[in-house]
Amino acid sequence: MSVNKIAILTSGGDAPGMNACIRAICLAAKHANIKTVGYKHGFNGLLNQEFIDLEPARVYNLIQRGGTILNSARCEKFKQAASIAKAIVHLDENNIDALIVIGGNGSFKGAAQLQNMWNKPVVGVPGTIDNDIAGTDFTIGYHTAIQTAVESIDKVKDTAEAFERIFLVEVMGREAGFIALNSAIASGCDHVLVPERFTSAGEELVKIIDKLDSRRANKKNASHIIIVTENLWPGGLAVLADSLASETGVDVRILTLGHVQRGGSPSSEDRLLATRLGTYAVQCCINDERGMMVAEQRETPMSLPLEISWKEKKALNSYTVDMLDKITLLG
Amino acid sequence: MSVNKIAILTSGGDAPGMNACIRAICLAAKHANIKTVGYKHGFNGLLNQEFIDLEPARVYNLIQRGGTILNSARCEKFKQAASIAKAIVHLDENNIDALIVIGGNGSFKGAAQLQNMWNKPVVGVPGTIDNDIAGTDFTIGYHTAIQTAVESIDKVKDTAEAFERIFLVEVMGREAGFIALNSAIASGCDHVLVPERFTSAGEELVKIIDKLDSRRANKKNASHIIIVTENLWPGGLAVLADSLASETGVDVRILTLGHVQRGGSPSSEDRLLATRLGTYAVQCCINDERGMMVAEQRETPMSLPLEISWKEKKALNSYTVDMLDKITLLG
Amino acid sequence: MSVNKIAILTSGGDAPGMNACIRAICLAAKHANIKTVGYKHGFNGLLNQEFIDLEPARVYNLIQRGGTILNSARCEKFKQAASIAKAIVHLDENNIDALIVIGGNGSFKGAAQLQNMWNKPVVGVPGTIDNDIAGTDFTIGYHTAIQTAVESIDKVKDTAEAFERIFLVEVMGREAGFIALNSAIASGCDHVLVPERFTSAGEELVKIIDKLDSRRANKKNASHIIIVTENLWPGGLAVLADSLASETGVDVRILTLGHVQRGGSPSSEDRLLATRLGTYAVQCCINDERGMMVAEQRETPMSLPLEISWKEKKALNSYTVDMLDKITLLG
Amino acid sequence: MSVNKIAILTSGGDAPGMNACIRAICLAAKHANIKTVGYKHGFNGLLNQEFIDLEPARVYNLIQRGGTILNSARCEKFKQAASIAKAIVHLDENNIDALIVIGGNGSFKGAAQLQNMWNKPVVGVPGTIDNDIAGTDFTIGYHTAIQTAVESIDKVKDTAEAFERIFLVEVMGREAGFIALNSAIASGCDHVLVPERFTSAGEELVKIIDKLDSRRANKKNASHIIIVTENLWPGGLAVLADSLASETGVDVRILTLGHVQRGGSPSSEDRLLATRLGTYAVQCCINDERGMMVAEQRETPMSLPLEISWKEKKALNSYTVDMLDKITLLG
């Protein structure tokens, strides 16, 4: 089989570096004399035949741009067989020889269902700030999201010094603690709450109070910063804030970093990762690999079955988790 | 009178550039053979005799640091004459010949009350991100706060492009719209709500809907970003979000920038402003000026009565307000 | 006279914020039902009839982009009357009712010559990182250039601490010391050389040695950073480096910041300035003002004769110059 | 053996994240009831008995600071056996039970020689922006140096767009191309020259001209950016610039990024790496490991013989090198 035209789409929550990946796919394809088109708004573009040609001129100077020029979206309809069938008709009408889906594990499920019904390669590229895809060291957008979170927390620390206060900082991560754990360590925070280690509100509250007590024994009048993964504390962060305030008598503030974490120019790490994964995805298309996602270990790309992304749960790095107590007790 | 020792304190909400100002005071004083000491935690330090010597070595490499090494605080007690009398005893015990207070108009009231009872100069330096002090073009911290807000909003715009959404972004400013107005223009936002122009929730809601309608007529499927000054919308931003969602059928998200705006390395503008005002404040002490604040117009420092800061309401720049409609209608 | 179409060009050295100004002109014109076109590569575009339509969609999300979408250039030919005559024929063929030139004083000379021969308004907007245009507080790009220089110098200071070294840092400015003076103060440097105060290599060398001696008396083993305006030291910085090395026995390094200073996303200050000046320039066109440049004092735009830009020499702020010795002696 | 006191020093070229590593060692040691002291100015501090106590309060808020509070230096004397013997006397006088050396492979040679003569553990931690230490995925400072280079190149690209020019950008790396290769890819540059692939000036010049020709065929009038490792081009970059200018007729500019690359707040990646390696180095001391360096693979620390650092040459990632042609030909 000869590949003459590759289609790309970005799906699910957007992540910095998606544009860098689109650019890499487009350039690597051009280098192999393959055309590229981009479907807009995720899988919706397949259903609505909304697409654009991706000439190299279109991706010029794109590597440093946040967001995705193809827009992203979630697409509930795409869970229905009828929608997938319609997408395949459109792909074939458009003479598409392979499809690359940049997104997270939800998007990869859609990609796998499409692959089951289509006789041409569908390749996934892990693009999500949450880093929650097993098999790959990192996902596109993760490093930038941590860097953004850390820069914000650094700023909060400046102002926090003045008063004895507790700051609860909510970061993204959906059901994974990668952003929370690593931004907490990188910004020298006092404590972190991640879903992988969360027991119950009662037990966690005791642990927080203990940690704060031991820190205050070492440094009086200091502020304390606690990083919390989104959607984790039962009832929301206001509940935790109230509990902490009544237990400690200290003023408690909540800071929700929010969508800032999804934006910004991708860090050099994410641009490099996106470029390696994007160029490799083109090779997978040429090799007619079916139902695979590209992944990376030690900066070397490889392909793995898409299903790993939802069948395996990616674990936090155990060394990092274990060292947490050593470095947050004191300074 | 000869000035041999100047005391400094930072009071009220902290602002980037306070450290740069402390450094400038310390170095300019040293240049005039004057010692400097710093009272900690605002006026509380005067009451508790909590202070540190500020040798030049202490302020080395301080110009670029956020926060304030003297800590800041609000001090309710300082409104009582007994507290002020106690502060004066402490100042005299400590052989202080002049006091420089870096803070906002609340802190300047305290400074003026102290001046009324003390026979040595008390000089105010406008340090607040809110820029709400009449008589001076800018206050220390204001430029950095806008830059921080704009960088965050730029990032939100990246991710906002993907979906049709309305983002409500809350910025600081207390009862003044300087940060909101200028960060909205500098980030190319769709609409801004400032206290100086707010009429009623009902009327403002109509204006927002009109603005969004006209923008969508020009650019379909785009996101919209609306900047809102803190504490402005009756009942809070969740109320506005609900109203907008039900009126437009569009998904509405709230982003509260929060204390991030108070932190970070001061911008070059704030470092320069802090250095000019700090060196000038030392000159005011030497000149035995009483009850004055330093101010700046067109980069030239001057001294003005402290009372201007609470008697006059600083107005938003009228040209900036008027041009808002011209540039937010379309792109 | 009714204005239906305004042309824009960017000329001379490019500056961050030129794009923000193009956007503001385009949107303010649209608001007044005026079309806009952009000539490319400065005055060359007028000669070659190279232009693009500037619809609002074209300037969408442009406020934060460095560079200029119209490209910039110097144009030697434009000093000839024949070239200007040709440009006027092209402007008239294209039904242009007014021309806005964003650039420095070289570009404003060209604009004035064109105005002398054309019966429609030519308006200048000061866009140059050098800030060397009299009559206006600031020029577009200046604040960003200082911020970029300061961020680089902050980084050099981190690494300079380790060793006793002298760093000579060359910044831009052409024949003006605005960038050098203000970036030196904002980054807490030891000394600065600006053309406005330069006497002779011999005298300046003595002053530098004296300054370094007094600083080393206060802080041993420290590094020293000296900011120098480009093209200032006779024979180049290598000559100064050699002299300093042989006089002090200390290792001397040269860092030339270069074109980095012209790039980057414009700071919030430059975006605001560019927006105020751009919208005001449209008003000048509508008012049929001839041979004027827009300027700004205390954030309020106004129009002044173009010739001010080359007839008056803009002076450094005298307070800033005078305070230099107070704050660089010690820390 | 029981470890009661660990000494730390930073040696060779400084790197962002050295402070974060010092902090991690100090806190992890404190957690194990071990004291820490820091020798100043690299191995010189061992010879001069210049050291400071490193209490947790000393490393508070240090994780985000560039440079090294222990200063760094090269130390020629340390190659002599007499100097090493003297250092051992000093270490023993000071009751030091283990020494951690943060630096590059030159510093590791010194550490190994000391280990040969001392009966207590000497542990190396790879800290250098050059990333040229085999056995570890990354060295401390490398990610920040790339990010700094990329941010500068992004800015140059903004301004480069305006004119047809060739920019030669020199980056650091000593004899390794890691910074050059990866910053070139991450900033979307046109070409890169690294020592690992350099043949001869003549051959490389032909390749550059070919590359530029093919790019200009795709995009007319564009600027071109070529990244070059320091000390690589015979005779220096001015020679290459002259050759390119005469061959192409295009204006060529040189930008040397210089020491800016060594400074700045460490990126989140470098803070995390420094914290993992620092905490692990303490464990190696406790385990009485001799002559080892800590390394990291896939975010998991391990210990390897120090001699790997000078016996093995770390290779550039082959996938990254191979993909270069695919993505730089066109956009």
Notes on the structure:
Four copies of one chain form a homotetramer. Chain A is α/β, with parallel strands linked by helices. The first copy, chain A, folds into two domains: 5-141 and 266-311, 3-Layer(aba) Sandwich (Rossmann fold), CATH 3.40.50.450; 143-262, Rossmann fold (3-Layer(aba) Sandwich). Chain A has eleven helices and eleven strands. Chain A has helices spanning 18-31, 43-48, 81-93, 105-117, 142-160, 178-186, 201-218, 237-248, 268-286, 308-311, 318-328, and strands at residues 5-10, 35-39, 51-53, 98-103, 122-126, 165-171, 191-193, 224-229, 251-256, 292-297, 300-305. In chain A, the strands form two sheets. In chain A, strands 3-2-1-4-5-10-11 form a seven-stranded mixed β-sheet, with helices on both faces. In chain A, helix 1 (18-31) links the parallel strand 1 and strand 2. Chains B and C meet through helix 1, helix 5, helix 6, helix 9 and helix 11 of B and helix 1, helix 5, helix 6, helix 9 and helix 11 of C.
User: Radius of gyration of chain A, rounded?
Assistant: 22 Å
* Unreliable residue stretches of chain A: none
- CATH architectural label of the largest domain in chain A: 3-Layer(aba) Sandwich
Q: Which geometry of chain A do the CA atoms define?
A: elongated
The domain tally of chain A reads 2
Biggest interface and residues each: B-C, 56 and 57 residues
Q: Tell me the strand order in the biggest sheet of chain A.
A: 3-2-1-4-5-10-11
